[in-house]
Amino acid sequence: YFDVEGIQTFIKDLHSDQPVVVFGFTYILYQNVLQAILKSNIKLHLPKGSKIIHIGGWKKLENEKISKELFNEQLAQCFDICPEDVIDIYGFTEQMGLNYPDCGCGCKHASSYVKVLVRDTATRAILPAGKEGMLEFVTPIPHSYPGNVVLTDDIGVLEEAPCCCGRPGQRFRIIGRLKKAEVRGCGDILSNKLTFQQKTAHAEFQANSHLDVQYFKGMLQSETGEEQLQEIVSHLNGKLDWLRNQPIDALIGLIGEVSKKWLSDERFSFLKDKGLLFLSNWCEASHLRQIAEQGLKGNIRYCDTFLCFPNSQKHFLRANSRGLACHWMAGNVQILGIFALVQCIITKNVNLLKVAAKDNGVFSSLLSAFEGVSYTTADGYKLEGSDLMETVAVVYFSRDAKKLGDLMSKSAHIRIAWGGREAVETVANYPSMIDSETVIFGPKLSYAVIAKEELFSEQAARKLARRVSVDVSVFDQSGCASPHNLYIEKGGVITPEKFCEILADVFPKTEAQIPKP
Fold it and tell me: pLDDT tens digit string along 430-487?
């Protein structure tokens, strides 16, 4: 753990005229040092002339939308130094010994032993100064291994004019990382492996017991996280009988109305390039009735009452809901969890959702669209969206909060987990009811298949290619609903090679419809 009080005592004992250097990995300095100081309200005073030097990559800070300027400013304030004295050093193991620290103007300068090139991300053509591209470093220094030319995943730009700091030679700026590039920075990798603990067992218990209630229509009386979560579970279970008495037609109709609101309300416009159109179309009432019929043996009213089997007057069937469905959401595509939630609502299960840390209120915002919306069935039954939202709650707690995770899991009649291997294994290892159903949406690769029968003309292939390009682009390839691989059958009038050319032609049109982030 980072001992703020201990560091404060140590700094006070330093000679005021002896500058020091604070050195560390970028993300660990941010997450475990800077955040600890900010939470403690303690200001540290380094001796005059001191520096903070950090290395190790910006990938994780980029994911958390932390700019370099904000990082420098906050670190400088916490340690009482100038922002210019926070120095980012760029470098990589493949060309060991060649480092590129920030100058006073925020640029990085190459030594006379290095030539820096910027290449186009698609064509790999060399770009002139001022154009962003992949950085390549050429040097004669390595002799024992072939590290003389390294093309990185880092995006940068060469600056043409002389630097105001007076240093000679090539200078460049790091803009970011190539999208979806593998994390390689030492600091980014170490931050995934290193676990920081709280200073005391009490503090650790407090942190691990914190419950952030993001959407809940009931009243909470308790103060501790575990007691609050138990109250939420009890409230939702208390609404189960009410939900079971709602006609399935009313539930489907209400969700269909809300799906229109998601598209028309400007509050959700930021989700349009994250699959909102796909979600809204999927939640249309006609489509929900279709999938409900498929899942309920051809008659959605089995959800409402006992009905005769087809072709029988002696055998009766009814579909009973399971009870409380608990969802563990993924952070890569927030709206994916809505698909499971909608099906749980239609089948009359109450729902408790634990969102990811990166959710930023998206899920709660989508649920708030139900408030103020109502739907009346053909026979006059009216269902209010605000009443339906009494059966749903959204919370967040840390993955380290084992007691909260255990409690949520043991309360679930259905457990639904989304995410990578580590995330879904965490949920699978929680204790559960003996008859609880567990549904895992873990890491997957998706593919689409083009049959030769559909490639009977160029016009047909172009229509099909446009549909394929939309499917591929939705969710920005972050969700398994976006095909990652495409198989094209031989033997059609249009060859697989020709279809690929057509597909390449239609992608720019799709990009106008679904812009890349």
Answer: 999 999 999 998 887 889 999 999 999 999 999 999 999 988 887 777 767 789 899 9
pLDDT at 201: 43
For 378-421, write each residue's pLDDT tens digit.
999 999 999 999 999 999 998 888 899 999 999 999 999 998 88
Higher-scoring residue by pLDDT: 105, 487: 487
The count of residues in the chain is 517
Last residue of a domain, one of 406, 441, 476: 441
169-172-177 Cα angle (round to 5): 150
Q: Give residues with Cβ within 8 angstroms of 121, minimum separation 6.
A: 133, 134, 155, 178
Residue 489: what pLDDT?
A: 96
Task: Identify whether 200 is part of a domain.
Answer: no
Q: Are 169 and 98 in contact (CB under 8 A)?
A: no
Mean predicted confidence (pLDDT) in 480-498: 92
Q: Strand (E) positions, 382-480?
A: 382-384, 392-396, 414-418, 437-441, 447-450
- Which residue, among 287, 412, 426, has the nearest Cα to 346 in the 3D structure? 287
For residue 337, the cross-strand partners are: none
Q: CA 182, CA 59: separation in Å to the nearest integer? A: 9
Q: How many CB atoms sit inside 10 A of residue 367's CB?
A: 23
For residue 57, what pLDDT is reported? Answer: 67
- Determine the structural domain holding residue 390 and report its residue range: 209-441
Closest to 90 in 3D by CA, of 2, 184, 6, 8? 184
Number of domains within the chain = 3
Give the whole-angstrom CA distance, residue 54 versus residue 56.
Answer: 7
Rg (CA), the chain: 28
Q: DSSP H helical segments within 29-121, as ranges?
A: 35-40, 59-63, 68-79
pLDDT (average), residues 18-43: 87
In a domain, 470, yes or no: yes
185-188 long-range contacts, CB within 8 A, separation 24+ = 185/26, 185/56, 185/57, 185/58, 185/59, 186/25, 186/55, 186/56, 186/57, 186/93, 187/25, 187/26, 187/27, 187/28, 187/54, 187/55, 187/56, 187/57, 188/27, 188/56, 188/57, 188/59, 188/60
Residue 507 to residue 167: CA distance in whole angstroms? 44
Q: Which H helix or E strand runs over 301?
A: none
Asked, for residue 348, whether it belongs to a domain, the answer is yes
**Mean per-residue pLDDT over the chain, rounded:** 88
Does residue 349 lie in a domain region?
A: yes
Kindly state whether residues 164 and 239 are assigned to the same domain. no
Comparing 177-191, 226-240, 361-375, the range with the smallest average pLDDT is 177-191
What is the structure's pLDDT at 206? 46
Residues 356 and 252 both lie in one domain:
yes
C-beta separation of 242 from 353 below 8 A:
no
Q: What is the DSSP code (8-state) at residue 102?
A: B
Residues 424 and 451 both lie in one domain:
no
